[in-house]
Every structure is written in C-alpha cells, then in structure tokens.
Amino acid sequence: METIKHLFRVDRREMNYLRVTIESYDGMAVVRTIDSGEGLIEIQISPFCENLVFDLLNSLVEEEGIRL
C-alpha cells in the first residue's frame, strides 16, 4: 500500500505531542522524525485519509496553537 508523504517543520517541543495525537487515530497516519534538531517531520498518510489528517492538523493549529 502506497502512502502519501508530507514534510512539515514544527517546534521541537511539539514533536512528540503531534506524533502521539496523529498516531492515536489508528491506521490513519504515521509520523517520522527526519531531523529532530530542525523540527523536521514526515507524515505518512494512508490512502483516502489525507483530508482527515489535514482536518486534524488544522484543528491542532487553531485549538492547540501548534505551528506548522
């Protein structure tokens, strides 16, 4: 199964919170750290879940103040 990959830069202090939150939606996406020093992560999204992941990210930005 091919995943959809997106790169994001986040505050290093928010990396774990973002990972745990996204991966708590079982099977929707996986977060991989590319460069922890730079806060660079890759989100690998399951097919047909891209809109759900971006809705979740938008919600985290608006409600939790996460910066992407």
Count of distinct strands:
3
- Tell me the structural class: alpha+beta
How confident is the prediction overall: mean pLDDT? 95
Approximate strand percentage? 25-35%
Rounded Rg: 11 Å
SSE order, one letter for each helix or strand: EHEEH
What general outline do the C-alpha atoms trace?
Answer: globular
Q: Low-confidence spans: pLDDT under 50, at least 5 residues?
A: none
Helical residue percent band: 25-40%
Major sheet details: 3 strands, antiparallel
Strand order of the largest sheet: 1-3-2
- N- and C-termini, Cα separation: 27 Å
Count helical runs. Answer: 2
Structure description:
- The protein is of the alpha+beta class and 68 residues long.
- The protein is 35% helix and 28% strand.
- It is built from two helices and three strands.
- The chain starts with a strand and ends with a helix.
Write the layout of secondary structure elements.
Blueprint: E1 4-9, H1 15-23, E2 29-35, E3 40-45, H2 50-64
Antiparallel strand pairs: 1-3, 2-3
Brief descriptors of the model:
alpha+beta, 68 residues, 3-stranded antiparallel sheet
Summarize the structure.
The protein is an alpha+beta fold. Helices cover 35% and strands 28% of the residues.
